[in-house]
Amino acid sequence: MLTTIAAAQLPVLGALLAAGALAKVRTAMNESEPGALSRLGPAALVVDRWRVPALLGCAAGEMVLLVGLMATGHSLFRWGAATFFAVSTYVLWELRRRRPDVGCGCFGEVSAIPVGLRSLGRTMVLTAMAVGTVWTPPVPGWAVVAGLTWSQLLAVAGGLLVLAALSPEIEEAAARLRHRAPCEQRPLDPATALSRLRSSAAWRSHERLLSSTEPVDSWRELCWRFFVYPGHSHAGDPADVVFAIYLSGRHPAVRVAMVDAAGRPIEIGSLQESIPVSA
Q: What is the pTM of this model?
């Protein structure tokens, strides 16, 4: 039974690899605005002149794995897919830690939403799916698709539903269809962003550090709304607490940083995420 479920994930892996590769190529060839690639991984990890090659290189790797999985039953491509998704999980973790303002770029520009637990969970699920295929019969992916049984179809549907639930891009794509404009160009009342902030875990965990619950400054940069509050650090030193709220999605990302009077970041032992602050 487990072997049947694992084998049925080959079409799922193929569909995700194809969608990711095509979306990356489209984004690299049709950059919507200058600097847009700097907000997408893996392009965000390299200097400007290497961003397009990095995105195209990632797409090429996905296409190689796609062809190998679908045209052959060789374990090399199955282990390759498992390694690719495992490395992707590590890269997304590093992006979330070091560049919490950028998206994963998994599906091109629609993946500009900051990396969150759902994106990490998706790559972990894909890694598990790919590892599972290693112990299935060495049958090409096209043969699996051609001979899908009802039980395998249910396994395929289940895999796709899990991945859909872990894909914030679906919400972003729906928002783009509704608004016909990217997040950076959509109007949003600051009061709505403030309401989202005050219902977030980041607010609850830092509220005790605030001297006032009313912001002293607020501004918008692209798809982020910033709020600045007077407060103090864990050591008791005066500081500004800066919150950044992503302006798209049902569960928008909220980032927080603390800066001193000179605008220098203050290191906090319990703080896991920070944001670049500019005024």
A: 0.70
CA distance 229 to 216: 6
Q: Are residues 170 and 113 in the same domain?
A: yes
List pLDDT tens digits, range 47-95.
778 888 888 999 999 999 999 999 999 999 999 999 999 999 998 988 8
Instruction: Tell me if the bond preceding 42 is cis, omega within 30° of 0.
Output: yes
Structural domain includes residue 51: yes
Name the β-bridge partners of 103: 40, 114
Domain total of the chain: 2
Asked if pLDDT for residue 243 goes beyond 50, the answer is yes
Question: Last residue of some domain: 131, 151, 180?
Answer: 180
Q: Are residues 246 and 120 in the same domain?
A: no
Residue 275 lies in a domain: no
- Residue 8's alpha-carbon distances to 1, 64, 81, 115, 126, in angstroms, are 11, 20, 15, 28, 13
Strands (E), 193-269: 217-221, 224-232, 238-246, 254-259
Q: Could you tell me which of 138, 105, 165 has the C-alpha nearest to residue 3?
A: 138
Q: Where are the beta strands (DSSP E) in the chain?
A: 217-221, 224-232, 238-246, 254-259
Verify that 229 and 93 share a domain, yes or no. no
